Structures are given as C-alpha cells and as structure tokens.
Amino acid sequence: MKPHHILVFVLLLNLLTHAGFAQYIYELDKTTRFDRMGAEEGLSTGYAQCIHQDKYGFIWIGTQLGLNLYDGYEVNVFNADPKNPRALINDWIYKILEEPDGTMWFCTQLGISKYNRANQTFTNYIPEVFDNYSDLPSSGNALMMIQDGHYFWIRNEQDLLRFDKKTETFLSFGKDTVNPEKGVFGSNLTGGFMDRAGVFWVCSGEFRDDYALSRFDKETETFVHFRNDPSDPESFVGKPVRSMMEDREGTIWVATLGGGLIEITDKEQGKFKQYAHDENDPNSLLNDDLLGVYEDSAGRIWTFGVNGFSRYNKKTAQFTNIEIPHRTYDSTESNWIRGITEGKSGELWLSSVEGVFRFDPATRVLTHYLFDRANENSLSHNVIIQ
What we know:
30 strands; globular; 1 helix; 6-stranded mixed beta sheet; mainly beta
C-alpha cells in the first residue's frame, strides 16, 4: 500500500497576548476530498436549507426547490403539485422534525407536511394565519417546529401556533394586547425550546432591546414573561435569543444576539446570570453576539458567534476564547461561526460563512476547509448554512 502524503499549510497562531485566548495550530487543508451533491447528482437544487438523517439512515435535504430523500445511492425528489392534494404542500423547506416513532414532518412556506412512508405521500396542514399572509410569503414561513406530547409548537416571524395532532387543529398564541399572558410578549419571535421537564420556552419582542423570554404554564395555558429590569441585575437581558440548551446537570443556557451567554439560575422566579464580553477581562466571553451554545460529550460548554468560539469553564467561571482570523475576504467583516457539532472522536466541526473548521480540543489543531474553484474535490461553497 502506498503511503498517503498529506500537504497542509501550518501556521502557529500565538494568541497568548492575554490568558483568555488559546494558542492553537491553524492548518489550511487542501487535500481532504469532499464528495459534492448538487443538481448534477440529482438534487432539486444545490442550495440546501436543512438536512436530517432519520432513524432508518436515510438523509432528508430541504431546499428552496423541493424536498430530497437520499438513500445512499440515489435521490428521490418531492415537489409541490397544486393538482395533487397528497403531494408536498410547498417546495420551500425550512425545518425537518422526526418523531421518536420515525414519523417525518416538514415546515414549509405555507404550512406543515407529514410524510406517509407506506405510500410516499403527504398529509398537509395549513393554518388560517398562513392564508392571511399569502401576499407576504416571508411572514408565513413555518420556521420552527417543537414537539410537546401530541402538540407541536410552530412559529413564523409574527405568530406562535400550537398544532394538535389528535384534532388536527391550530391554536394561536400570538401577542395579545388585552390579556398579555394569553400569548407571546411581542410580534417578532426569535426562538423556542423544550426543556427536559417538558416546559416550553419562547423569546419574542418588538425592538432589538425589548425582548422577553417567556415560560408556558400548561395548567393555566398562559405565559410568564421575563423582561429586562435595569434595576435588577438578575433579570433577563432583553436581547433576542438565538439558541437554548439544557446541559447534563439540568442548567439551561441561553445564547443571545447582543446580550452574551445567559444562565437560568431560577426557572420559577425567572432569575438569570449574564456572561458578557469585557474588554478589560481577558477571561470573559469573546463576543456578545452569539448564534448558539453547545455541550459536548465531555460536558464542556461551547459558545459560538462573531469571529470565533469560546469554551466555558464551570469551575473557574472563565472562558477560553478562540478567535478565528479571516482568510478569504475583507477582514473588516465579521466571520460568523454558525454551528457546532461533535464528531465520533470528540473533535468539533464548525460551520461558518468562511468554510468549515475542524477543532481538536486535545491537540488544539484547527483545520480549515475552503471552497477552491480549481479543485473539484473541495467544498462546494464557503457559506455553510447548517
């Protein structure tokens, strides 16, 4: 067997200008092969909005031009057909949800679709509120779907709906100016989360600095809105929520856009602890503009967003920050890390607007993969959605 020669460009980035930044080895990898899938390979389009592997191993790929099912050999494309009520309801797929029993649901621009595996058809559900937004397609998108027993919580930009699978009906929990506790706090919804205790959380607001994190009470069918109170340092920061996560110890972490990382210290009373960037503290959070928070298999907490990612040490309450420099475009622009997932060997894979990164926490090697127009085995694009 011939030896494999791997050529990488290695640059040691000495970021130990202060204790909060980690030293790591940067490698620009130009040899790893990526198998591309696009229209030429059978996809409805090469632009993927979401992707999910189901319990049977099949890969579902949602795009703006239909739903794709990949079995490892070939692609089966599902498209909307106005003449066929058993077809997919809409071609623009935003989110994919799989129930524990393998039932597949898809959030689209016009409503939700359930896939019937036995005959490869769909059962479609269109809430009336979506019909009202027919002239404003960006306002009718089903952007989120969270299961809550036999209910599904569904949100678009302006409303929160609850779908009952038993009755096949929708109930709106949109903003209610007469009885504020009957609906979400604001008309702009930015997130939703179901904790392990079965409590549903949602963030909504009207302006960038006037958002509330709301907790739903199943017994009263009402919301408790936790807002920012400048006189109370334990109140919610009032910023849009981009991601929530419950760690193995039961602590809920909240990644916000502009408010840093939030720890919910008291779920009932609505007490919060903020971890924000402090330019005078090298061990503070890298940046307050976050897109997500993640716990790896070792129980380490990671945050990601503008220009890099951070690891939080629960024992010291300090952050180790990894700032990622620009490689492909104007350095004055922000390099957003958009997602983190863990590989089989404990390595972290990071998606960004500037390619894909692989970070090994043990060796602190950061490997960078980029699109190369001259290399057909490179990434298909530098902007990674998920």
